[in-house]
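User: For documentation purposes, I need each entry recorded in a consistent format: the amino acid sequence on its own, followed directly by the corresponding structure tokens. There are two entries in this batch. Please keep commentary to a minimum and don't merge the entries.

Assistant: Recorded as requested. Entry 1:
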Amino acid sequence: MPEIQVLGNQKSILANQKTILTNQKTLLANQKTIVKNQEVIKKNQTRLDQILKNQVTILALLKK
């Protein structure tokens, strides 16, 4: 009887390891997506900074 329990536990451990591997793959994929999104955000922030500078310039010209 204990042997059956050990086998059952081993099966559970293997199933859990498989789940862990699947989750790790998902996490890595998500991290890759996050890095890509951060790059896009950085580019957008740079563009927004330039727009703000342009608006300040335009406002200064309009006040003349």
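Entry 2:
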Amino acid sequence: MKIWNLIFNFACVLLLVTVGCDNGSIVPRPVKPTEEGFPEVMVGVWEQKNEEFHKWGIKFESDGSISKIIHPMAGPVNIAEGGSHAEAPDGSYYTFVMGPCDANYIPSTNMLKVKILIDYFAIKIPVGILEGRSEDYFEGPVSQDGKTWKANWLGYGWVEGGNPPPIEKLKERLMPMVFTKTDLTQIPEKN
């Protein structure tokens, strides 16, 4: 029995020396990058679902590119296809033409900045057509454990024939969002 206690104690000491500790907790490790310099933990699908109206989903590739999104207005979009379009039997339709969608990671601060642009949208309903464009920006730190991305969201749009958005006022009211990694199948394909 004495030998088992000795082995157990040695294993505990070895574990503490290997992992490290700080006030009884495991020391956080820096976020590991991919070959392209993007955080490895961010590769995959991230979803924000605190508010159903503003539901977002973003799929990051290992090079930091964005391949798919779920946009509150456009729904699921495959970025490589350039946008999305759907029609209804009553003649109504929507069209979204995507602009640049970029991710920029700053390793020294674990900060991730994302830009999602819709260069043009048209939504036709029985009473008319709504046309315009929109810009969405997210910025915030990736957690050390790679489980959350706390970002502030700034989104605004222009509607044809309307007044321009009050961008400076909107910058004063950034909306905090928490993204979590989800199953890769969560961004559905459009039919």
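Summary note for entry 2:
Residues 45 and 142 are 14 Å apart (CA to CA).
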